[in-house]
Amino acid sequence: MEKDQCTVDYYYHSWSKRWSTTTRSASRIVTSADNISTSAATHQRGCRCNWIRMRRRIFAKLCRTTIVIVITLTILVNLIFILEFGYKSKLSFSDEPTSRANISDDGQSYQYLTLEIVSSQSRAAVSVDGAMMIDDNEVGKGRGIHVLVLNQRTGAVMARQIFDTYSPHEDEAMSLFVNLVSKGRIIVMTIKDEGSFHLKQPTRDLLQRYGSKNSQILGWRDTWIFVFEKGDNPQLRGVGGRCCEHLGKSSNFLSWGQPLSVTCKVRLSTDQHEECQWPDTEENQRRREFCSRVEGYGSVCDCHQPTPITFQPSPIPNNQIRNVPVAIIASDRPRYLYRMLRSLLRVGGANKEMMTVFIDGYYEEPMQVVRLFGLKGIQHKPLGIKNARISQHYKASLSTLFKQHPDSRHAILVEEDLDVAPDFFHYFSQLVHLLDEDPTLYCVSAWNDHGYQHSAVNATLLYRVDTMPGLGWMLTRKLFKEELETLWPTQDKMWDWDMWMRKPSVRRDRECVIPDVPRTYHFGASGLNMNSFFQDTYFRKRALNNQADVQLHDIENMKAINYERVVETAVSNATVLDHTISPCEESFIPNVTGETFVVYMKMEHARDTITWLQIAKCFKIWDLDARGSHKGLWRFYLKNNSIVVVGVPFSPYSKFKPTKLNPIELHSTVTTRKSN
């Protein structure tokens, strides 16, 4: 028994020992495995970190390389742009000769221009020595004769013009332009679409005198290219003495002549005595700079008797606007601007130090005109398109003008396509105080919407009207800064600025003072809202005062209370015309002079202008919309008689209508406008 017990103890201890040994071995194995696992994990994390660091280094290098490439490309593109722009600018405005091939002719070596010219239904193009100077392929635009003027010594472009000779009077404008170009210049002409419909005989004869063999037979929708040198004995200095002219005849009324694409070589002049030798004065320095860059301004560049560009305007009596700033509103119509500035700077009371020309866009030639006259010019980036762009131009100009002149309480605006009367500044000087004294006044304008040669005769007479005429006008700083500037239509609004200013919510029952005889004349026949037909129909026969220092009568009667008494007296004392006769009949206005006549017409409310517009057509005054009225009453002259038209029952002056008199009523189908 004791032996058995010993045997059991032996086996137990042996098994415990083996189990303990086994457990320790297993523990060592597990610990070793853990160490291996930990070591593997550590190694794996190290590898991952190295890979991340490598990726970051690669990405950083790629970024740096990309930036270097982008910067390099940007520099290259800018260098190319600068070189190309400089080359084109040199061709366009520089007097320095460009590199051209020399051609031997009669034993002498000459430089030649290479002109590549296109004339077709849809495109007109001219390149000079490979640089494109005209390339018009825009649909619906650019119809007519494109004209390019080149310097005969350098080939520099000095003028670009388009004359829509499909429309009336454009041929006259082209003839005038050619006549104003200096002798010796190279002139290139090419037609896009149609250029013969209103090309009248005098212009055809002029072109023939300059060497054209086809001007007399140029017909409907023909394509045509003509290059000549203007001179006393016009002839082209072309290779082999050839006249560079090509004509593509239209085969029938519905088709165009064949497209023309011509290369023409023109020999440059070597005469170094063609530059004018003007005395070295400040005025002539401006003249020399101008005449070396642009063309088509006539005697301003004449070598022997140049037109003056500095003026000494006479002072005006009791000048109240000496320090009133003047904004000249301009765009890319440099010849209009030139004509306008010559007109304005010669007027009595003109102060060029107070004038600023505001140009809508970065155009070179208008700025050259501004510098020619020694004026300040400001160009700005256009905002908006079409009517909205014009509107923003006016706002920016007014804002800048008042900022330039912080102490000025008034400002005068005048557009680039206006002639001004000799008493333009004297007129405003006499009326400026009214804007400060009468809160019912909106502006003072030099324009009269009904001021035609047959309907405006009294240069001393003034009216009050409830529309804003514009076209040469004066306003107060207070009106602009406290009202108009903050309310002005934004560039996304396709509104006419003047129509906006006429809105009842903006005008707020205020009126403008205008003259019977206008102090401005609209001569511009091209523009966003203007063409030669519209100019001819509604503006060509406008009146313009030609007297200096006209003393206006009854200025204080332009104040609201006084003006009511004046109008009531005029209406109550006027002779009533025979209302059984149509206003369109010549006999409606008696053949007498110096009388005051009154007409009563149907007008139910402010917008009921049907009868008035028909009467306006009969009288051949402004008839496109109702303008120039005062509380439903219009005043003007016919046959040297004062005419008053009263709208019944809308106008408060209807109370003077005889009880049994029926007001005249006309409809839009009754009459048509007669030609002026």
List the helices and strands and how they pair.
Layout lengths: L1 H92 L8 E4 L2 E12 L4 E5 L2 E6 L7 E7 L6 E7 L6 H11 L5 E7 L8 H9 L13 E7 L14 E5 L11 E8 L14 H10 L34 E5 L3 H12 L9 E6 L3 H9 L3 E5 L5 H19 L5 E6 L2 E3 L3 H14 L3 E5 L16 E4 L7 E4 H11 L9 H5 L2 H4 L3 E5 L4 E3 L9 H7 L21 H14 L1 E2 L19 E8 L6 H10 L13 E6 L2 E9 L27
Parallel strand pairs: 11-12, 11-14, 12-13, 16-19, 21-22, 22-24
Antiparallel strand pairs: 1-2, 2-3, 2-10, 3-4, 5-6, 5-7, 7-8, 8-9, 14-18, 15-20, 16-18, 17-19, 23-24
Write up this protein.
The chain has 676 residues and is of the alpha+beta class. It is 34% helix and 21% strand. The protein is built from 14 helices and 24 strands. Strands 13-12-11-14-18-16-19-17 form an eight-stranded mixed β-sheet, sandwiched between helices. Strand 23 and strand 24 form a beta hairpin. It starts with a helix and ends in a 27-residue tail after the last strand. Residues 1-39, 84-99, 233-242 and 670-676 have low confidence and may be disordered.
